[in-house]
Amino acid sequence: MTQRIRLYSTRIFIAALLILLFIGGSEWEEKCPIVSSVLFLAGCTLAGVASLGRLWCSLYIAGYKTKQLIVAGPYSICRNPLYFFSMLGGVGVGLASETLTIPVIILVAFAFYYPFIIRYEEQNLRNQFGQLYDDYVRRTPRFWPKWSLLTEPKECVVSPKIFRKHIFSALWFIWMIGILELIEELHNLHLIPEYFSFY
Fold first, then answer.
1. For domain 43-198, is the CATH number 1.20.120?
2. What does the alpha-carbon distance between residue 25 and residue 180 come to, in Å, rounded to a whole number?
């Protein structure tokens, strides 16, 4: 599975969710505004953590991802920190829709889709780095971080040009929340119809 296929698949999934939210709304907003507010706050918090987490990962891989095995920083606490933080961000965006349905859909889609990507990438890394990667696998969890394993170097050399690109990819969770707020306001102004609502 190439990175391009993964990117297209993710964009199609996001577009489908946006269409769903464009024509539907939150049941909580009308029936229990406090729940709606708590869901939004939780969503913003997770999206913020995810953006910072992805930037943290980018510090370590900017310019080195395919050249050497990265095992420090976020990569010392789990082997797939980018995907871990992406999951947090996806759930956060889902919660920011002020529903429980959307984050569940995102979590289920993530659980079905990303294990295939992770296994594919693991095989590539094993082929490239051999015993070095096998040793890394033995000491580092695949997905859920183990913070007690954290190790960080005193300094880190980063490619500014590549890191700049990573910044934009890390902030899309925040942009998505802005889009959700815009859609909600268009509903409130009755500029677009709301055909259904869901929890």
1. yes
2. 10
Is this prediction's pTM over 0.70?
A: yes
Alpha carbon 69 to its chain's center? 22
Per-position pLDDT tens, the chain of length 199 = 556 777 788 889 888 988 998 898 888 887 888 999 999 999 999 999 999 999 999 888 876 656 788 999 999 999 999 999 999 999 999 999 999 999 999 999 999 988 988 998 899 999 999 999 999 999 999 999 999 999 998 888 888 888 888 888 788 899 999 999 999 999 988 888 888 888 8
Tokens describing residue 132: 């070095």
CA separation, residue 24 to residues 12, 110, 196 (Å):
18, 22, 5
Give me the amino acid identity at 135. D
